[in-house]
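[Meeting: bench + compute handoff]

Bench side (C.D.) handed over the final construct sequence. Compute side (W.E.) agreed to return the predicted structure before the next meeting so the bench team could plan truncations. Sequence as handed over:
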Amino acid sequence: MTKLRVLLADDHAVVREGLKVLVNAQPDMEVVGEAEEGNATCRLALDLRPDIVVMDISMPGLSGVQAAERIRRECPEVRILVLTVHELGGYLRRVLEAGASGYVLKRAVGEELLRAIREVAHGRVYLDPHMSGQVVAGFIGTTPSEGSGTSELTEREVEIVKLLARGFINREIADQLDLSIKTIEVHKARALEKLGLHSRADLVQYALHQGWLQTP
């Protein structure tokens, strides 16, 4: 069995040790590296190319948001799951905009974290149930304009919007659909305009409303 390669990033050694024991106890996962601050997290992500980085938001050096932005820019194939104590919607929006594909609260039970790791590592978005309610309730100020809907999108635009909401970047979508990056950008721009959306966080909110982010 090919194991999911996990990089852990948290400035508390006790937290990292507990996560390491939990992850390494799974037959389909293994911890390949640990970091206690943001810059080291980015270096290890670049060197190790793990399947997923499980990181805190509050770390010395680069914050989790800054580290996520850098990792997604330099290692777009690496997925990012944020594990944090912060329960405010503003933090969730910031990490989604930075490129993270998952957000789990530290008070979550182990099984939920493991599920989140598997979901994010396989290209899906995972939001802690306590946080997803805030998204659906509209914690993001910009919502689809009145009258906008999936019916206005072409089949290709729907396909691209779904992939964007799940955390894939333009280059990855272009590879999956065998299209040029420029073509992806054009479809993306048209879809966002039709839906009245302005950011990736808005896309995630819209996709949640449409039921596109449910586990198959």
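W.E. noted at the follow-up: Confidence is low (pLDDT under 50) at residues 139-147. C.D. will use this when planning the next construct.
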